[in-house]
Amino acid sequence: MQSLSDIDWDNWRPVDLATLLFVVRDEQVLLIRKKRGLGAGKINGPGGRLEPGESPLDCAVRETEEELVTTPTSPVASGELQFQFVDGYSIHVHVFRAGDCDREPRETAEAIPIWARVDAVPYDEMWADDRIWLPLLLREEPFHGRFLFDDDLMVDHEMLPHPPRAAVPEPTVSKRTASERTASERAASGRERLATGRRGMSETPFDSSREQQR
């Protein structure tokens, strides 16, 4: 597998479904430095894999609450990303944008919050594809991208001229069940449910003027 043309996209089914969410306010975008999981050490938006029966929007809100202890305000769908890795792994990511959050984000066991100026996004510390589509999100333009990766090296990519399809593809394998979540994750989700009434559910935030988690 050397290029996107080697993939039968009509019959492509991802191993996982996931989300990313970006809060954009006052010419700043809320990012995270991911502490664990796929892309640990990289800067990204808060997000993660869908749980069984969960919608992409519910997942995006839950993951932001779990990773940053804040709830995004009125998130809307911005685009979709399809990732194929040469080792066989694949993931379909639904990307959301929100105009604010209900409290200042704070560090958790999963992520460190980073507020970056929209004109100084630290792309060098992010996945290689982010610099292709994140500017579209920041300009509130819809997008649909396909990417081929070899580990964290982007081998090929294309941005499609049409909006993403509405149907959510079924993953090829089932995602982890609630019983497979770690004890710490279950405890964190329990505390968040008590605090906010929602389902499922530091380090000082990054100052991009002083310094520079698919």
Tell me about this structure.
This protein is an alpha+beta fold and 214 residues long. It has a single domain (4-207), classed as Nucleoside Triphosphate Pyrophosphohydrolase. The protein contains three helices and twelve strands; from the N terminus they run E-E-E-E-H-E-E-E-E-E-H-E-E-H-E. Strands 1, 2, 3, 4, 6, 7, 9, 10, 11 and 12 form a ten-stranded mixed beta sheet that branches. Strands 5-8 form a two-stranded antiparallel ribbon. It is globular, with a radius of gyration of 17 Å. The relative contact order is 0.24.
SSE layout and pairing:
Layout: E1 16-25, E2 28-34, E3 43-44, E4 47-49, H1 56-68, E5 72-73, E6 76-85, E7 90-98, E8 100-101, E9 111-117, H2 130-138, E10 143-150, E11 153-159, H3 183-196, E12 206-207
Parallel strand pairs: 1-7, 6-10, 9-12
Antiparallel strand pairs: 1-2, 1-4, 2-3, 2-9, 5-8, 6-7, 10-11
Strand content: 25-35%
CATH names the topology as Nucleoside Triphosphate Pyrophosphohydrolase
- Quick one: overall form? globular
> What share of the residues lie within helices?
10-25%
How many E-type strands?
12
> Number of domains in the coordinates?
1
**Topology order in helix (H) and strand (E) letters:** EEEEHEEEEEHEEHE
Using the 3D structure, state the CATH architecture.
Alpha-Beta Complex
The profile of the biggest β sheet is: 10 strands, mixed
Helix/strand/pairing category = alpha+beta
Distance between the termini: 19 Å
**So what's the CATH class?**
Alpha Beta
Task: Output the radius of gyration.
Answer: 17 Å
> Uncertain regions: pLDDT < 50 for 5+ in a row?
173-213
Helix segment tally? 3
Could you name the CATH homologous superfamily? Nucleoside Triphosphate Pyrophosphohydrolase
Query: Taking all residues together, what is the mean pLDDT?
Result: 83
